[in-house]
Amino acid sequence: xxxxxxxxxxxxxxxxxxxxxxxxxxxxxxxxxxxxxVMTALVPTSFAxxxxxxxxxxxxxxxxxxxxxxxxxxxxxxxxGVLQETCIAVFQRRRQRKTSVSRISGHIEEVAxxxxxxxxxxxxxxxxxSDASIAAAAAKLPLTLGDAGYHASTGPLVWNRRRYxxxxxxxxxxxxxxxGADIEGGVISRSQARDKQRYLTLHGPRDxxxxxxxxxxxxxxxxxxPEQPRRLVAAExxxxxxxxxxxxxxxxxxxxxxxxxxxxxxxxxATLARVLNTHTLDRVLRCLSGTVAVSSYELAAxxxxxxxxxxxxxxxxxxxxxxxxxxxxxxx
Length: 332
Hints:
Layout: H1 5-10, H2 21-31, E1 38-44, H3 54-63, E2 66-72, E3 86-92, E4 98-104, E5 108-115, H4 132-138, E6 143-144, E7 150-154, E8 166-167, E9 174-178, E10 183-184, E11 187-188, E12 199-201, H5 204-211, E13 212-213, E14 217-221, E15 234-237, H6 239-244, E16 249-251, E17 255-260, H7 269-276, H8 279-288, H9 296-300, E18 303-304, H10 307-313, H11 318-328
Helix pairs in contact: 2-3
């Protein structure tokens, strides 16, 4: 919803970027709650994880923490014409230590009882009872992916804005485009479905600066299909691959890019890609977000163990890495 300056100032404590009208209602309802009052909201679950709602989460945590949340299993039944994860969230001024989590699918199924979320970052909330212990353990870990030395961003190419610059053939003024479908099985390949849209023509130094990735990184699919078994699909982009691709690539808007922010991050690109492709990290992400979209904000917030544990993962792969990662995301 578009806001005038006066309204945006009034709700500055709960707004960041685009304003969602349901967020304004939640903020105003929480502000007006009586001491023993209760607010119940039937809303998209994005309020619990998205960047634009981080101030709202902070305000709710201080004014009326969430006492329960029930995920509506049928994504198409709550709001007409919209397919999204929906929940019934309950907030109270009365402080509690725990938040109850359940699912509604014709009946109410208890999922877990979690420590009440009190942060502005994405809230770790299990959607399945089998993920309850993973979410609880992850919430106690000391680091995030950002702390470990990585910046997450979204690929800059919005293809339909540059459709006339996209070609099937290579040329001196063009760079290869990496699409989400090119990231599969832990490697970067060239999906035949995108062969007719493989190269972007660049116009001047500024275009090159904005569009072209010239450093080794980890690429992650930003949008996955509902039928895919995984939400986290990652691959390492090595310096050798970049050289083979002509010295740089263009990430399309459905690709997230993880770049090191320090000379020696706590985890190498190669190990990070393998860790993100483990079963455990996929389940952790599902506790941060119930949608098929993987935002760069949520990636940066992925909980990680301490530096000594991360260092021990270097060189591990396959079942050895799966087991080592799983151990750190289990309650002791």
